[in-house]
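step 3/5: co-fold with adenosine-5'-diphosphate
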Amino acid sequence: MYKINVAVLFGGCSEEHTVSIKSAMELAANMDTEKYQPFYIGITKSGIWKLCEKPCLDWERYAKYSVVFSPGRNTHGLLIQKDAGYETQLIDVVFPMIHGKFGEDGSIQGLLELSGIPYVGCDIQSSVICMDKSLAYTTVKNAGIEVPDFQIIQDGDSPETERFGFPLFVKPARSGSSFGVNKVEKAEDLCAAINEARQYDRKVLIEQAVSGSEVGCAVLGTGTDLIVGEIDQISLKHGFFKIHQEAQPEKGSENATIQVPADLPAEVRKRIQETAKKIFQVLGCRGLARIDLFLREDGQIVLNEVNTMPGFTSYSRYPRMMTAAGFTLSELIDRLIELALRR
Ligand SMILES: Nc1ncnc2c1ncn2[C@@H]1O[C@H](COP(=O)(O)OP(=O)(O)O)[C@@H](O)[C@H]1O
Ligand SMILES: [Mg+2]
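step 4/5: write tokens
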């Protein structure tokens, strides 16, 4: 039987490098090797692409060959650099398991569009919009769904703190895994929070704090043909959700617990799922996305953010929500690859 050649990309130059490796490890452990021939490509933090045997935290030790996807359509695959020159390897589909900058922001999608190789997940345009929280808010608000009030702070802009009150949130417009995010309780701390967010992105957002709880919805599919996972819900003891900043997220979080399925009435869960599907469609997503929302105390659903390549680590929310709805990780991988090839 012909095996589908799948190139799995992981690592990358962003602050989410390690999260991406952990996601790729789960992918590798659950990919059916009777059906697929995987090619694992690790990208170092400095942006070097290497073919390696499997994703693991010290994958660079086992990576032998430099490798590239040509942006031209000559090869439909990889150019593997070996002693005398390049060897080519046909690739049927790419699974870009890279989070954040250069993974979810449309850049890798651009390369793959040029190369003509099908890939899992959102296209350039929806990746760009979802990666920039201000663009996602504007698009989603335009469709009649509530979003937090926010202000964009670029060089020289003054924060309109009276508009938001305290606490407020400061974050990079385009980052992830809570890097550079701060809950600011008083005016004196605002400047430091903006400077911290700026380390990740020149474009910084100030947001009104939304009170209530955080809920998530995993969406898979394309157009109106969408499946959703069970809703999850985060309970916070204090502060805000930042599991990826913790020392041992595999063992749980210091301030947060995630319950899936959420302990909410069926009507509320359904409403969250329908809102998530609508957001997925409005943003032009395809393949997969995790829609993170706030459920306000008055029952109103408010957008938090959309992750177009959500984490697949052992403790990640997307696979857990889908598993709770009856889809194993292997089934998810099958469906995602099928969707990518159908395009
Ligand atoms: N406007 C807000 N109101 C309340 N909590 C927020 C707000 N923005 C962010 N948070 C908290 O900070 C966490 C991380 O922020 P988020 O916008 O999701 O950034 P990231 O892309 O890094 O995950 C959220 O999960 C939530 O706990
Ligand atoms: Mg988030």
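step 5/5: annotate
The mean pLDDT is 95.
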